[in-house]
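Whiteboard transcription, Tuesday session. T.W. wrote the C-alpha cells on the left side:
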C-alpha cells in the first residue's frame, strides 16, 4: 500500500513537471533563433582609408610636430608674421600648433580634396596618432580650438514684410546715405497708430546654424571635413583602394622619406573635363534639335499690318521698304594710289613672297609651343629641407603615348637619351645662366610638323568663309626646304647631336666715375652712353652638339640665306685663334666650331669670349661654384639649369633696394640676411619611373622673396582695411535705424544688442584690423572705427552718429 502511494506521488510529480514545462518548451519552439552579434567594423587606418577614385588631390605631411618646430618653416613664417599682416585666425593657428607640437611630433596628416564622387566632402583632413588613446586625448582639445579658427556664422533673422507703401512719412535715414539705403530705412519704420497692420515687420526665428566643419574620431585617427561623411562613402566595398593604385604607389614610394608629399590624379581630372564637355555638347545638340522642331512664328510684315488697319483710323500708311542703294566700293589699305607705290596691289590679289624669314620664325615659335596638350596620368611632388636649400621634387607619370614628354602641356618638348652634359666644358666660367637639354630632334620635328598641319586645317575649317576645295597650303618647313634644296629631316637633323645648351654671359659693370679727361660739355653724353651700357642686356649664346663639322659648315651659308639674309657669303668675315675659326656677318651674327659644338651668337664679341675661355681652360666646368652646387645631380641627365651667384646677387640687391625704399623694418630684415646667396640649380632625369624634376632653392633667397611679397601685402593692407571699416561704420548706422524702428522701441542699441537682434555680425567687426565701438542711448548713437595698430592695419579713423 505504501509502495502504491509512493508510485502515485511520483507520477503526479512527473505530470505536474511536464505540464509546467510545456509552455516553456512551446515558447522555445516558436521563438525566433537568436542572430549572432555583428562583428564591429574595424577602425579605419591612415593608409587604407580612401578609394582610388575618391579624391583627385592627395597631400600627406609627415612628422607634423617636428615640421612645425623646424627652422625651415619658422624662418619663412618670420617675415610673414612681421610684415605681411596676416589675419588673426592665421596667427591663432600658428600659436596653437606651436603649443601642441610635442603632441603632434610623430603624427601624420592627410589632406584630400576635389572629390570625384557624390556624398564626399570637398576637403577631408585626417590626423594619425600613435594609438587610439592619444587620438581620444587630442580630440577634445581640437574640438575646443576649432570654433576660434572657424566660428559658427551668426544667424540673421529674415524679415517677412507685408505689402506697404513705397515711402513712409517721418522716416529719417542717417546722414550721407544713398537713396536706396534711405528707402531701406523708411521701409522698416513702424506705421502710425491705427487698426491697420500695413508696413509692419514680422521677424522669422533664425534657423540654428551649425559650425562650418564636421569632426569625428575613429581609432587612432581624428577627422575634420566641411560636410558629414561615412567611411563607406570614402571607400565603397566594391572600389579599388588607393593603396593599390599603381600610379599612387609609384609616386608615394618614390617620395617615402620627404616631409611633404603631394599627388594629383590628372587622369581623373581629364576624364571629368571630357565628361563635362560631352554633356555640354549633348545639351547644345538637344537645344538645336528643339529649336528646329519648334521654329519661332514669323512676325507679320509691315505690309500686312497696313492692310488690316481699318480705313480712317488716323494711322499713317505703311510704305514698303525699298532696296538700299548699292554701296560704292571702299578702298582698303592695300588699294592705294598707283602713283604712290608701284608695288601695291589690290586687296585679295596674291602677293609675291619676298622674305620668308620672319613669317617662318613666327610659325616655328607657334608650332614649338603650340599643338594639342598631352596630359600625363598623374603627378607626384615632394618638398624637403636639406642643408641651406629647399628642395622641390616632381615625378611625371606618363602613359605609353606620352612616355617621352618630360614637361606637361608642352607636347613638342621630347627628351632624347640621357647624357652627361659636355657643354660646360666650352662655356666661360663667368656665365650667369646655363641651360642644357637633351632633345630627340626627329620627334620634335614630327610634332611641330603635325601642329602646323592641324593649325592650317583648323583655320580652313573655321574661317568665316570655309574653303573646302583647293590644296592645303604648304608648311613653312616645306617652303624653306624648297628654297634651300634640302630636306630638314634627311639632310640636317642627322648631323646634330642630342645636346642643346644656352648660356647668358655676365653683364659688364661700368665704373661709376668717369675719367677726368671728359670735358663738361661731353659729360652728359658720356653719362647717357654709360647708362645705356648698364641697361643693355647681354646676348645669349647657343651651343648645338654636332656629329659632322664639315657637313654643317657647308650648310650654314644656305641656312643663313634662307632666313632672309641675302648675300650672306659676301658679308662673311673670319678670324682664327689657335686653329679655331670665328665667322661673323656684318657684326650682327657669328658662329664658331668649339669642340664638338657649334656656338652661335648675335654678338661676335661673345663668340670670341667663348673661344678664348675654351682655349685657356677657363670654362664653367672648372668653376668651384658650379662643381659644388651641381654635385647632387645624377651623372646622366635629360636637362640641367644653373643660375650663378652673380645673377642671384643682382636679384637680391634689387630686392634690398626696393625694401629699403618701402619700409625700414623690411630693409633691416633684408640687411640681416646672409649676403652670400648660393646658386640656384635644377636637373631633369629619368630613373625608369618617369621624368623626374628636382629644384634646389637657396634658403635666404626664398626668405628674401617671401619678405618682399609680405611687405607688398602689408603696404596694400591699410587701404583695404580702411575701405572695409568705412563700410562697416555705415552699415552700423543703418542697423541702428532698423533696430530703433523694430526692436529698439524708438531707441538705439549697443553693439551687443545689434548683434543679438541680427542686424550686424560680430565677426565682421573683428576681422579687418579695426576696433568698432558703438555707444547708444534713447535718442543718440555714435559709431567709431579705430585701427588696432596705426600705420599697419590702418591710417584713418571713422565716426558717424544719428545726425
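and on the right, the sequence the group agreed on:
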Amino acid at each position: 500500500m505504501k509502495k502504491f502511494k509512493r508510485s502515485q506521488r511520483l507520477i503526479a510529480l512527473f505530470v505536474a513537471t511536464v505540464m509546467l514545462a510545456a509552455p516553456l518548451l512551446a515558447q522555445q519552439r516558436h521563438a525566433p533563433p537568436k542572430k549572432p552579434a555583428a562583428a564591429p567594423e574595424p577602425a579605419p587606418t591612415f593608409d587604407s582609408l580612401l578609394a582610388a577614385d575618391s579624391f583627385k588631390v592627395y597631400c600627406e605631411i609627415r612628422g607634423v610636430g617636428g615640421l612645425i618646430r623646424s627652422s625651415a618653416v619658422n624662418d619663412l613664417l618670420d617675415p610673414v608674421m612681421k610684415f605681411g599682416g596676416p589675419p588673426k585666425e592665421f596667427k591663432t593657428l600658428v600659436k596653437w600648433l606651436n603649443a601642441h607640437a610635442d603632441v603632434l611630433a610623430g603624427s601624420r596628416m592627410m589632406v584630400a580634396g576635389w572629390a570625384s564622387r557624390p556624398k564626399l566632402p570637398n576637403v577631408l583632413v585626417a590626423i594619425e596618432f600613435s594609438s587610439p588613446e592619444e587620438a581620444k586625448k587630442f580630440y577634445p582639445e581640437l574640438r575646443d580650438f576649432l570654433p576660434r579658427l572657424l566660428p559658427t556664422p551668426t544667424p540673421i533673422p529674415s524679415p517677412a514684410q507685408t505689402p506697404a507703401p513705397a515711402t513712409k512719412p517721418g522716416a529719417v535715414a542717417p546722414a550721407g546715405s544713398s537713396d536706396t539705403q534711405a528707402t531701406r530705412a523708411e521701409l522698416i519704420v513702424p506705421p502710425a497708430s491705427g487698426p491697420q497692420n500695413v508696413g509692419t515687420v514680422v521677424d522669422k526665428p533664425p534657423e540654428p546654424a551649425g559650425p562650418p566643419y564636421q569632426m569625428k574620431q575613429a581609432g587612432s585617427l581624428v577627422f575634420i571635413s566641411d560636410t558629414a561623411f561615412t567611411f563607406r562613402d570614402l571607400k565603397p566595398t566594391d572600389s579599388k583602394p588607393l593603396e593599390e593604385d599603381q600610379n599612387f604607389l609609384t609616386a608615394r614610394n618614390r617620395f617615402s622619406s620627404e616631409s611633404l608629399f603631394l599627388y594629383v590624379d590628372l587622369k581623373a581630372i581629364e576624364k571629368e573635363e571630357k565628361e563635362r564637355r560631352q554633356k555640354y555638347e549633348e545639351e547644345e545638340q538637344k537645344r538645336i534639335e528643339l529649336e528646329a522642331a519648334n521654329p519661332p512664328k514669323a512676325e507679320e510684315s509691315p505690309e500686312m499690318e497696313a492692310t488690316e488697319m481699318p480705313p480712317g483710323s488716323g494711322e499713317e500708311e505703311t510704305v514698303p521698304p525699298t532696296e538700299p542703294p548699292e554701296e560704292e566700293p571702299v578702298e582698303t589699305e592695300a588699294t592705294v594710289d598707283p602713283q604712290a607705290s608701284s608695288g601695291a596691289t589690290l586687296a585679295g590679289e596674291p602677293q609675291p613672297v619676298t622674305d620668308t624669314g620672319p613669317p617662318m620664325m613666327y610659325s616655328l615659335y607657334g608650332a614649338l609651343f603650340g599643338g594639342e596638350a598631352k596630359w600625363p596620368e598623374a603627378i607626384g611632388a615632394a618638398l624637403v629641407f636639406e642643408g641651406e636649400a629647399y628642395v622641390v621634387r616632381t615625378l611625371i607619370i606618363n602613359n605609353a603615348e606620352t612616355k617621352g614628354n618630360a614637361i606637361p602641356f608642352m607636347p613638342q618638348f621630347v627628351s632624347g637619351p640621357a647624357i652627361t652634359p659636355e657643354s660646360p666644358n666650352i662655356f666661360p666660367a663667368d656665365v650667369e645662366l646655363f641651360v642644357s637639354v637633351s632633345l630627340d630632334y626627329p620627334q620634335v620635328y614630327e610634332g611641330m610638323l603635325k601642329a602646323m598641319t592641324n593649325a592650317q586645317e583648323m583655320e580652313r575649317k573655321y574661317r568665316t568663309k570655309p574653303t573646302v576645295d583647293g590644296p592645303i597650303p604648304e608648311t613653312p618647313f616645306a617652303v624653306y626646304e624648297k628654297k634651300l634644296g634640302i630636306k630638314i629631316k634627311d639632310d640636317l637633323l642627322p648631323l646634330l647631336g642630342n645636346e642643346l645648351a644656352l648660356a647668358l654671359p655676365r653683364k659688364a659693370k661700368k665704373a661709376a666715375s668717369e675719367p677726368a679727361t671728359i670735358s663738361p660739355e661731353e659729360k652728359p653724353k658720356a653719362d647717357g652712353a654709360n647708362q645705356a651700357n648698364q641697361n643693355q642686356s647681354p646676348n645669349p649664346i647657343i651651343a648645338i652638339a654636332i656629329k659632322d663639322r664639315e657637313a654643317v659648315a657647308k650648310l650654314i651659308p644656305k641656312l643663313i640665306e634662307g632666313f632672309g639674309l641675302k648675300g650672306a657669303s659676301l658679308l662673311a668675315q673670319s678670324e682664327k685663334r689657335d686653329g679655331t675659326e670665328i665667322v661673323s656677318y656684318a657684326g650682327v651674327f657669328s658662329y664658331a666650331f668649339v669642340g664638338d659644338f657649334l656656338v652661335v651668337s648675335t654678338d661676335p664679341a661673345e663668340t670670341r669670349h667663348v673661344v678664348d675661355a675654351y682655349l685657356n681652360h677657363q670654362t664653367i666646368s672648372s668653376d668651384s661654384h658650379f662643381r659644388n652646387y651641381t654635385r647632387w645631380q645624377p651623372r646622366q641627365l635629360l636637362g640641367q639649369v644653373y643660375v650663378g651667384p652673380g645673377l642671384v646677387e643682382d636679384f637680391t640687391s634689387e630686392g634690398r633696394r626696393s625694401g629699403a625704399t618701402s619700409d625700414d623694418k623690411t630693409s633691416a630684415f633684408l640687411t640681416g640676411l646672409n649676403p652670400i646667396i648660393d646658386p640656384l640649380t635644377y636637373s631633369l632625369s629619368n630613373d625608369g619611373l618617369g621624368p623626374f624634376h628636382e629644384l634646389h632653392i637657396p634658403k635666404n633667397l626664398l626668405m628674401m622673396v617671401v619678405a618682399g611679397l609680405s611687405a607688398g601685402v602689408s603696404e596694400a593692407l591699410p587701404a583695404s582695411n580702411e575701405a572695409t571699416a568705412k563700410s562697416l561704420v555705415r552699415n552700423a548706422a543703418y542697423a541702428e535705424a532698423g533696430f530703433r524702428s523694430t526692436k529698439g522701441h524708438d531707441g538705439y542699441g549697443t553693439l551687443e544688442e545689434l548683434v543679438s537682434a541680427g542686424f550686424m555680425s560680430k565677426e565682421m567687426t573683428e576681422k579687418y584690423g579695426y576696433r568698432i565701438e558703438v555707444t547708444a542711448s534713447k535718442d543718440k548713437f555714435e559709431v567709431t572705427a579705430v585701427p588696432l595698430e596705426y600705420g599697419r592695419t590702418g591710417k584713418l579713423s571713422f565716426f558717424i552718429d544719428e545726425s
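Someone added at the bottom: Residues 699-741 form the longest helix (43 residues).
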